[in-house]
Amino acid sequence: MTAAGVAAMAATPTRMFPQTEATDFPKPDTPDAAIKLLLDGNERYLKKGSECMVNLAALRQATVDEQKPFAVILTCADSRVPAEIVFDQSIGQLFVVRVAGNIAAPDTIASAEYAAEELGVKTIVVLGHSACGAVKATKAGGAVPGQISELFQYIYPATVGVADLQAAVEKNARYQAAVMRGSSPDLVKLIQDGKLSVEAAVYNLGTGKVTMLPPLKL
Ligand SMILES: [Zn+2]
Fold it and tell me: How far is the CA of 81 from the centre of ligand 1 (A)?
């Protein structure tokens, strides 16, 4: 361990983050290990707040030439759902795609495909959240300003007939994950080979907890 690493550990002896060197992050080699790393990070966030936002200068330097994120997080643009903080991950760990309603649409699917094919992420997590305005607006229908309604076509199929907003949020995350899962032959092949998973989860704005959701068959 470097002197800087020793000093960092001595300064924070109770840290739970499994990082022993400034740039020494765990690299999961299976989808299940990637999900565990995310949920462990959410536990740290719940118990003690973020612990990984340290050594940022060293991390920047270590990731200038190459990135090796282990997960894609497709989540809402909502300001209350900051993916790195929620999962207690730092620079270079998460490939985050954010769009209102966390929709699987051509642009977001292409971004996830890049991360899966070129960067080797082990899991794609579609993360919805409680009280999602995009889901709420889709359910309400009616006129909205500008191009906001462009989003509705992607969310509507997931929420039609679902009265409760929280149930609609969860159904939407599961639906978008199902769309993502079958969106391209490349992703299907990685999933079949056990190299990638596509999961749905929901974030509670009030408690900060991430809960995994069961897969939805389309
Ligand atoms: Zn939202």
Answer: 8
